[in-house]
Amino acid sequence: MGKKGPKAPQGNMIIGQSGGPTVVINQSLVGAVLAARNWKGLIRKVYGARHGVAGVLGQDLVDLSEVARNKLELIAHTPSAALGSVRKKPTENECRRMFNIMRGHDVRYFFYIGGNDSAETAHIIYTVAVDEDYDLRVFHIPKTIDNDLRGTDHCPGYGSAARFVAQAFMGDDMDNRSLKGVKINVVMGRHAGFLTAASALGRIDRKSGPHLVYVPEIAFSEGKFVSDVKRVHAEHGRCLVAVSEGITDRYGRLIAEKFISDVDSHGNKQLSGTGSLGDYLAGLVKKGFGRQSIRVRADTFGYLQRSFPGLASQTDITEARKVGEVAVEAATSGHQSGTISMIRGDGKSYRIRYKVRPLSTVARHTTHLPRKYINRDGNNVTRAFIEYAVPLVGKLPQNELLTGRKVNPIKT
Amino acid sequence: MGKKGPKAPQGNMIIGQSGGPTVVINQSLVGAVLAARNWKGLIRKVYGARHGVAGVLGQDLVDLSEVARNKLELIAHTPSAALGSVRKKPTENECRRMFNIMRGHDVRYFFYIGGNDSAETAHIIYTVAVDEDYDLRVFHIPKTIDNDLRGTDHCPGYGSAARFVAQAFMGDDMDNRSLKGVKINVVMGRHAGFLTAASALGRIDRKSGPHLVYVPEIAFSEGKFVSDVKRVHAEHGRCLVAVSEGITDRYGRLIAEKFISDVDSHGNKQLSGTGSLGDYLAGLVKKGFGRQSIRVRADTFGYLQRSFPGLASQTDITEARKVGEVAVEAATSGHQSGTISMIRGDGKSYRIRYKVRPLSTVARHTTHLPRKYINRDGNNVTRAFIEYAVPLVGKLPQNELLTGRKVNPIKT
Asked: Which stretches in chain A have pLDDT values below 50?
């Protein structure tokens, strides 16, 4: 897998999108569709599958071969999966049904844009195709706002979501300076704290929030959380907190567990689309302050993080486009299957090169925020994280604080 | 009040900010501060009160006379109240204490940037000043994301918050097209539905969400809500809903009432900073669909709506600056007190003129979304609303839908 093999076949191509959308996932789609047009000798028709594998199984395919380039460019800048998305893990039987349909359409190339669950789907499809002796090139094109794929410096989709989170905290820090109190913001991130850590990217001085950052990588203690908040509040007269939706206690149980019922076919629990974790944490803080009446508020950023238009990181736009192109180049140059990973250069200026890796690198696995990006106390990020993330997010708006000579009080 | 009177006095000026911040409230601050520099013969020193009237009472004043213009320009673009905000209604006694302090600093001009509660504060201060024979010019400079002040076409702060909400819904509509199900978004708006109505500004076709819009002006029926959602879901296979945090039942009771405990000194209940209304409505929908398992999610946009940097409407920026300038012009040209209202021209192109009105126009009162902006069924906005709001929000990002020839299915 992932190795170069016999010459690429002639045939048609299917591309699909899967999992939670991002604001640049259509860049990858358009990157792949336009790259395929450069290989008309090999790839004759480009079909888009509506809602991923569900669209293959249901024969809900749309011909993208003739869609005009300027329309594709507008789609590239539109958030969320233009083909529709799905959360579905196909069975072996479903794979065989898909191959029947693909054979009927002479499909020899399959591209699947998504996260680790989508890579797993691609891996299953490739494995069954090999077993069935169906000659299909299968590529996973990475996207995830969680930034938790293995074997890559970072993932397309992360930079833009991180930018949204950073800007949201920049504004909310000003709001919290202005009206004080304790503010808790719950950020997406099921297993990895990368997105929550991005809350710190817009800090402008030592008093800037978020003052506390809790990620799934560090066991969350409710008692320590409340005492952390009280300490910060005593120091600054206010406290802004960033919390991952996926924080767990020291037994690995989700703090949000008590509020959750929905589970998808990959076994993931629904963490987003509810404000209950934030409200629960706000309740803990209110209780912790006891009779001292403190303004405590919680917001849950929710789906805005992955779908807000007009804010994408330019680096992310460029890279998301590129991984789509590179996947097609890999498939047409003889690779059988793979995922596209991004490797950061060691030099001073930010540089990325792209590499084809086996699907098994990414399928099902998740990575975590490295320990060096989390402070010793487990409640904040380090300088090393900021250096890692800044190039991915791009230049942020500039907030300025009002300072001036204090007017001498008069005697009253 | 509001009438021109004797020549403007010589003295110093205090300016403060109050109530919920906006992303352009500092434009009004900077507009007033810079305008005062044009009247050095009358206004000698400009003092900023930290956290509004609390900063006057506590003598927490900062001298803004010497702050450099380029620094002020950066502050103007920074979200939230740079001087700090407060929610406090002063007593007559506190007014007298403030006048003692003001006399000590030779203050003859008082400007207060805020919503209707802040106008009430300004009105109280002016009334007591007249009673006490303290010669003080008192002006309210309007701001509110709720757009619910009387006697004005719209309010500075609304256009930018409306832009955030419109963009958020544009992205979330794409997200909902991609993953289907029912999505409920709770939007700020205690009494007025203007901000929730802005959810409709980014629609691109007849299938675009939000499909349902519920505002506080129309009595909310839980039963009708669930049947509305089921009808839309049956038609589109999905449903995106915008709901004001301030929706009430037919007895005028807040739907959110069961979750609320906090009340501020103006008697307002805390509606924001909690996800419970959204979660409650999502629960109703899940129950309404019964055994039919439907993906239902709720997000509460929260404080991001009023503080998100880098997204402000250009019209809003310009107008927020202008109301600050106009207030100073009014005070120095002999008006005793007042608020600044904005009047829209009748012409085809968007034009605003500014007018000084009595503080009593605005103090404590709120306006509502006119009935003509709400559809007959009470669950959506009309074309007239879109025409009203578009110039305030400015050009939105362009979303494009992927359409193409459907591939003919093969027989399997």
From this structure: 1-2
Residues of chain A positioned with their CB less than 8 A from the CB of B94: none
Q: At what angle do helices B92-104 and B116-131 cross, to 10 degrees?
A: 70
Kindly list the residues from chain A whose CB atom is less than 8 angstroms away from the CB atom of residue B172: 303-304, 307
Are both A11-156+311-362 and A161-304+368-393 of the same fold? yes
Q: Choose among B81, B275, B406: nearest Cβ to A178.
A: B81
pLDDT at B2: 46
Smallest Cα–Cα separation from B379: which of B187, B194, B229? B229
pTM confidence score: 0.95
At A198, the amino acid letter reads: A
Asked if CATH classification 3.40.50.460 holds for the domain at A161-304+368-393, the reply, yes or no, is yes
- B63 CB neighbours in chain A (<8 A) are 404-407
In angstroms, the CA A152 to CA A352 distance is: 10
**Cα distance between residue B232 and residue B379, in whole Å:** 12
pLDDT tens column, A116-131: 999 999 999 999 999 9
Q: Which residue of A has its CA nearest to B74?
A: A400
Consecutive H or E run containing B141: strand B137-142
* Residue in B closest to A46 by C-alpha: B407
Kindly report the CATH class assigned to B11-156+311-362: alpha beta
Q: Exposed, middle or buried: residue B408 (CB in 10 Å: 0-12, 13-18, 19+)?
A: exposed
The DSSP H or E segment spanning A189 is none
**What is the C-alpha to C-alpha distance for residues A109 and A114, in angstroms, rounded to an integer?**
16
Q: Where are the domains of chain A?
A: 11-156+311-362, 161-304+368-393
Sign (positive or negative) of CA dihedral B82, B84, B88, B92? negative
| Torsion (CA) A149, A155, A161, A163 in degrees, nearest 10 | 130
ipTM of the complex: 0.94
Note the pLDDT of residue B411. Answer: 87
Cα distances (Å, whole numbers) of residue B26 to A117, B48, B332: 46, 12, 21
Query: What is the H or E stretch that residue A349 is in?
Result: none
CB B280 within 8 A of CB B245: no
Q: Is B146 a catalytic residue?
A: yes
Which tokens hold the place of B292?
């039919």
- CATH architecture group of domain B162-310+368-393: 3-Layer(aba) Sandwich (3.40)
Q: What is the pLDDT of residues B375-394, one digit of tens each?
A: 999 999 999 999 999 999 99
pLDDT < 50 stretches in chain B: 1-2
Q: For position A1, what pLDDT does the model report? A: 43
Residues 6+ apart with CB under 8 A from A297: A181, A182, A183, A184, A282, B270, B272, B273, B274, B302, B303
Q: State both tokens at B153.
A: 């076409």
